[in-house]
Amino acid sequence: MELLGYFWDALSPLNLTLALVGVVLGTVIGALPGLSATMAVAVLVPFTFTMDPAAGLIALGAIYTGAIYGGAFAAILVNTPGTPSSIATTFDGYPMARRGDGGLAVTLATISSVFGGLVGGIALLLLAPPLARVALSFGPTEYFWLAIFGLTLISALSVGNTLKGLIGACLGLLLSMVGVAVVGGDVRYTGGSQAFLGGVDVVSALIGLYCIPVVIDLVATRDPHLKLTAGEDGIRLREAAGIAWRRKVNVLRSAVIGTVVGILPGAGGSIAGLVSYSEARRSSDNAANFGKGEPDGIIATEAANNATVGGGFIPTLVLGIPGTPPDAIIMGALLVQGIKIGPTLFSSEGQVVYTFIYGLLIATVLMLPAGLLIGRYAYRSVVTLPKAMLVPTVALLTVVGSFAIHSNPDETRVMVGLGVIAWVLNRFGFSPSPIVLGLVLGQIAEQGFVQSYLIGNATNNLLGMYFGRPINLAIVAAALVTLLYPYWAESRRRRRRALTTAEGLSVAAPQVAAGETTIDPETLARLRSRRRTGTVVLAVLIGAVAALAFVQARGMTPMGAVFPATISAALMVLSLALLAQQLFAAAPATGIEAERTGPRGNLRRVGVVAVMILWAAIFPELGFAVTGLVAFLALILIAEYDRLPAHAWLLRVVVAGAVVAGFWWLMADVLLLRMPRGLLF
Fold this sequence. Notes:
Strand content: under 5%
Radius of gyration: 25 Å
Number of strands: 2
Distance between the termini: 62 Å
Number of helices: 26
Strand order of the largest sheet: 1-2
Structural class: mainly alpha
Oligomer: single chain
């Protein structure tokens, strides 16, 4: 009966209003790259100090869960995860949107997110103390292997690109080492620049590695960004509900995975999404369709990453160990309110805690209607917006988002630089996802690795530290299975295909994916040769970077050098393996179609790169408003393929001014960021 009373407290008009407003704000913020859940929660914490503790926590929890869900919008519509938790959503969400099923993808993400959030919240309500003990069983070595497991998952998702995925993961780990070492305090790989002392910001890197390649490729052709199916209303609720019901085992399994991973401090939604995605692919009868627009991929990722919200609160509330930065901020808000965190919290502050948990569950339920309504208009807006307006708008979001994190123009420049590098790497089969995940998990992996190394040396049991505990061996075994299973599955498919051909049965021709075109044999051979040559050059360059990193690690302290030396050595070995593969193996045909653009398309790409680099370089000196407007108009000119009358251009100038002014107001007056005014403003 007491728990029922807390439920009625959560249903008060004030708490319901805070839950709804928080979910809507969180969804919008999560959908905008750079405006993260951490920023939203941090900005609004002071406003909760005058509220009742339970009401303030409900508002913060609603914003948090809404932002994790909102990351799916950008992942599906513009191939850019709004949060790191949505990395795996891009794998199938964007291909679905490209073929005209974007509304269905958004609705599937909404339904899965709500269910996953409810499972995580119910686990928090009923199972918090026993599940918190699971987190205590993880030491530094377990966290190191867990991070490596996450990297092997994302590297092994495509059989043909597993080697490149591992190289990308190592590059991400090297990026995570830039700046002051997490253990030992060495200053590493800064090139003598103070701008890199704080390291490479994860959100800036995420925006650059995902957004900038999309902007560059959008201008290459006049084809629409996404398709709009006839009669598409942007929701397709009945169809999505039917798909989710038929995949109910996947939904439930992914939600449980997300809850369990969520209770591990630092693991977060990115690992949970990848684990559930990999498991969904392994157990699916349509494993070959994953990465091409398979609904199961979206269901698995979104159910898991939203379940981590409730799971993450378990160690935060029971043990005082925040799992993510938003958890840490919310824990700080509790401490400011005078509430003591610990195992006795649920008995000593039951009214606050249980009202908050019920409020979190209510906010998750409200996410369904709010998300469907926002999703309907977001999808139609992105689909119907002319490409000449979409390109500068997305570009403006990249600059705004990267600058807003710390009001630091250097992070905007790093974002653009990484984005251009990512576009080059992407053309030769290097996905940005392993790089981003390596950067996200880098500090967790290094801290666990170095601490285990120190303990192992001190106890003369180095191998035992890494391989002597059952949990370690289980995670290592799972990582090996993850890497080897796709090869086994591919080998099995080839044997079946060969057997079918030998028996004289017809073999269906491979289907051409949405947006791809067939190529004549001569052109295909030329593109394969060009791709092979470029990959060889990249393998040599990456090997040189790894060798330089290894040499520089020798000048560091033992604590600061052990992890960089290990990763750079692994990267050199992987680069040599890639070089041997390209020189002695057949060149794959995958990704060739994406390279077919004419000289005018490539010229437009160069124009976008030039505008972005110049914009990032001069906006701190000349001011955000003026440079933003000029860059916006320049990108309109680059992306426009049609000859428009004067009044149409005038309208676009007015719209450009309104968009830039709107973002200026949001940044300067709402978020209270220090905007560069420069010489011209």
